[in-house]
Amino acid sequence: MPAEPPIEVPRSLAEAFAILAAAPHRPVAGGTDVLVQIAGELGPPPERVIDLWRLDELRGIGLEGDTLALGALTTYTEIRRSAVCLEHLPALVDAAATIGAAQIQNRGTLGGNIANASPAGDSLPVLLAMDAEIVVGGVRGEQTIPARDFWVAYRRTALQPDELVLRVRIPLVARREIRFRKVGTRRAQAISKVVMALAWRSSPGDGGWSDVRVALGSVAATPIRATATEAVLDGAAPTAETAERAAATLAAEIQPIDDVRSTADYRRVVAARVLHRLVRDAGGW
Ligand SMILES: Cc1cc2nc3c(=O)[nH]c(=O)nc-3n(C[C@H](O)[C@H](O)[C@H](O)COP(=O)(O)OP(=O)(O)OC[C@H]3O[C@@H](n4cnc5c(N)ncnc54)[C@H](O)[C@@H]3O)c2cc1C
Fold this sequence. Notes:
By secondary structure, this protein is α+β, with helices and mostly antiparallel strands. Helices cover about 35% and strands about 25% of the residues. Bound molecules: flavin-adenine dinucleotide. Flavin-adenine dinucleotide binds near residues 33, 36 and 99.
């Protein structure tokens, strides 16, 4: 096992920003991804590390008007126990409950899942489907990046090397519903083969859908939105015919790959079936 890299332990966000501005450091939050990298199993280990765990400025879950705000250091256990999340975004609680097992949920953070940028990151489809904003910052100040623009290529983000993910802002839109579904090999400790979040707004009159979001992980190099499939669902009611058309469109729209966890064909078929099931459940038929 390689030697442990030198670690900076800032006591404030300002101190962390200054350390990052002076020299490149790999941030470590819960460490559940970084520790695997430090072990040298996934390419060269980081040369210098900055430990974020003591930065209370990056903690907390709360409502800011019609927005749910979660600090980057929010753990999955905190999300699962949060009355605010349970009331306003149960799909994020559902996603948190599928991540790793208890040990990972106690240490793993939402900011770590976002910055790690794995296409299989289970919280990421929920953030995409909710039009979340990622607030990042460094010595040059803060900026807000829409989730849709954040994951730019395989394991690459819009984050600059001297910036941190600070928090996530999720707009809570009236009459918006969202459902989450993950398919893995087991019920716990399973990396997704397909992970999906489906969001929509129902018309109070005819029950037709608008603002549909179909967000997926593990079917492309980054988490994605399936916009052709969204167009099929937008303006439609959740009938059997709509579900069939949407599922067929999704199967044609995504271009998954074969890898150690699954095959492209399996992912395509399963993604279509998951969407069909979610539309069926929403339609109550
Ligand atoms: C056994 C096991 C099971 C797992 N199961 C799942 C699973 O089911 N689903 C899933 O999605 N993931 C899973 N993971 C991966 C991991 O637990 C998650 O991605 C977790 O959210 C990472 O959070 P962390 O705080 O531990 O990140 P860390 O390991 O601390 O960091 C991850 C990456 O993000 C960067 N980073 C962290 N915080 C910040 C920040 N605030 N600003 C800028 N960069 C930052 C780090 O530099 C690093 O590159 C699993 C990991 C293990 C070891």
